[in-house]
Amino acid sequence: MISGILNIDKPIGRSSFAAVRLVRQIVGVERVGHGGTLDPAAGGVLPVLLGPATRLSDFVHEWPKTYLATIQLGATSDTFDREGVITPSGDPTGISQAAIETALPRFIGTISQVPPMHSALKQGGEALYRKARRGEVVDRAPRPVQVLSLRLLAWDRTAGQCRIEVRSGKGMYVRSLAHDLGAALGAGGYLAALTRSAFGPLRVEDALPLETLRASPDAWREKLLPMDLPLRGWPAITVEGSRARAIEHGQAIPVPEASTLGRHRLIDEGGRLLAWGTVDATRHLQPQAVFPR
Fold this sequence. Notes:
- By secondary structure, the chain is of the alpha+beta class.
- 18% of the residues lie in helices and 35% in strands.
- It has helices at residues 16-27, 57-60, 97-103, 128-133, 174-184, 210-215, 241-248; strands at residues 4-10, 32-34, 43-50, 65-73, 75-77, 86-88, 109-113, 122-123, 126-127, 143-156, 161-168, 189-199, 202-203, 208-209, 236-238, 253-254, 262-267, 273-279, 284-290.
- Strands 1, 2, 3, 4, 7, 10, 11, 12, 13 and 14 form a ten-stranded mixed sheet that branches. A five-stranded mixed sheet has the order 15-17-18-19-16.
- The radius of gyration is 22 Å and the shape is elongated.
C-alpha cells in the first residue's frame, strides 16, 4: 500500500486542489490530501499526503511555515493581494527602511488578525470567498494567530516594495499581515507575491516541481517521505506480540515504560508505525488511529 508524504513545489497559477488532483492521477492513489492550502497566486511547498498518511494531516498543520512575501506599499486591495481591485492610498517613497523595521515587531507573537473576505474560511457553512464573489461583505471576528518571526530582507523605496520573511503558526494570513503592515506605516499595502519556502522540515529547494512530476511520472517514488514524519518528535513505544495485536484491534494497552503522559507513537520491532495514541495517568495507552500492517 502506498503511504507517505510528498513535498510538492506548487507553481504559481495552479490551485492546491488542482495540484492534489494531478498527484492522485499520476500516483494512482485514491486517498490524497494536502497539509495546507496555497492560493493560486502563491507558489512553494505543498505537503501532499498519500493513502493512510491523510489521517495525520492535523499534525502536519502543526508544523510552522516560512514565507517569502513581497508587499506593495502605497495602495490597498479589496482582496488584500494583487488579484483584487487596487486603490492608491498613499506615497510610500517617504517610508524609510528603519520605519519598516520598527513596525515589524508589533506583528510578532500572538496577534489579533481579521481574516480576509477572499479566503476559504467558512462562516455560516459557506466559504467567505463565495460570499465575496456575490459582493457580500460580512463581519469577521478577529482571531489570535501566531507569528514566530518577521525579517525585512529588502526595501525598494522607488518601487514602494518590501520583501519580508515570515515564520508563522497555522491559520495566519500573510495577505492580512501585508494589509495591516501597510496601515501601520500610513501608506496602505497589499501582498504582491508569495512563496512558501518551508513547511516544518520540508524545504522548497528539496521539493518536487509539479511539472517535473508531470514529465516524469515515476519521479515521486524517490521523493516519497515516511508517513510518520509529523510524529517524529513524539516519544515512541515499541510493541510486539499480544500488545501489538491489541493495538491493531483498537484496544488500550498498559505501557509502564512510558516516561510521560500524552501523545505517543507506537512502532513495531522493525520501526514501522502501528498507531498513535495517548497515555493517561494510569500508564495505559488508548490508540487514536491505527495503521494496519
